[in-house]
Design a protein that fits this description.
Structural class: alpha/beta
Number of strands: 10
CATH architecture of the domain at 3-69 and 134-213: 3-Layer(aba) Sandwich
Shape: globular
Oligomer: single chain
Radius of gyration: 17 Å
Order of helices and strands: EEEHEEHEHHHHEHEHEEHH
Number of helices: 10
CATH class of the domain at 3-69 and 134-213: Alpha Beta
Strand content: 15-25%
CATH superfamily of the domain at 3-69 and 134-213: P-loop containing nucleotide triphosphate hydrolases
Helix content: 25-40%
CATH topology of the domain at 3-69 and 134-213: Rossmann fold
Distance between the termini: 28 Å
Strand order of the largest sheet: 6-7-8-3-9-10
Length: about 210
């Protein structure tokens, strides 16, 4: 078990979609896991409730916030390296690996982040979160403002990461879109997990729209 918080569990190699309308508490739950907000959390089999954000990140959490929030004035390479605590030689090797994973970034390593498209910035934010090989990846509304072709590429990256054993929890208002990539979904309503089920079960549930009302 990678994560347990407020009745929600995420296992290694699993993609879970955290669903809910505006105000349902999706971002707040991610912030609880990260340690920005108080709440009971178990990470990697241990009680993490008293751990700071920095301690949780060092234990293996990667985070992609809503709106990407890349460092606009830094280059692509600088953005990625800024998030790493690895020794310099290991960091260079890891950046090279990430450039192989994200060819669109490899083509523009010296470009300032503000010059990138929305899709390129999202891939940059993901690469930045992956620099130290997190065991748990949190993504807050990762498809916001992205074209369908970019979403498909993002989903492909997430499937590959899950296949390698990374646990992934992502928030999304559009249930059908998120359940394309997730194996399981959890619906938040008023800050509480109102329903958990497989992606197939949720997609077939006529009550899902009412649950997603926030």
């Amino acid at each position: 078990m990678i994560l347990e918080v407020i009745g929600l569990r995420v296992e290694a190699g699993e993609i879970v979609a955290l669903l809910g309308g505006t105000g349902a508490g999706k971002t707040e739950l991610l912030e609880t896991i990260l340690g920005v907000r108080p709440g009971h959390v178990r990470l990697f089999g241990e009680d993490a409730t008293r751990l700071s954000v920095e301690q949780r990140v060092r234990r293996g959490i990667g985070y992609v916030p809503e709106g990407r929030r890349v460092f606009a004035g830094l280059t692509v390479r600088e953005n990625i390296e800024a998030a790493s605590s690895l020794p310099s030689a290991d960091r260079r090797r890891r950046v090279a690996q990430l450039f192989e994973l994200f060819p669109m970034l490899a083509e523009r390593p010296k470009a300032r982040a503000w010059l990138l498209s929305g899709g390129q910035q999202q891939m940059l934010a993901l690469a930045r979160a992956l620099i130290d090989r997190p065991r748990l990846l949190l993504l807050d509304e990762p498809t916001l403002g992205l074209a369908p072709v970019v979403v498909a590429e993002l989903w492909a990256h997430l499937r590959r990461l899950a296949a390698e054993g990374t646990a992934i929890l992502l928030t999304e208002q559009r249930a059908a879109l998120a359940l394309e990539v997730a194996s399981r979904g959890a619906v938040l309503k008023g800050g509480v997990v109102a329903r958990q089920a497989s992606a197939e079960q949720l997609l077939a549930d006529p009550a899902l729209a009412a649950l997603m009302g926030g």
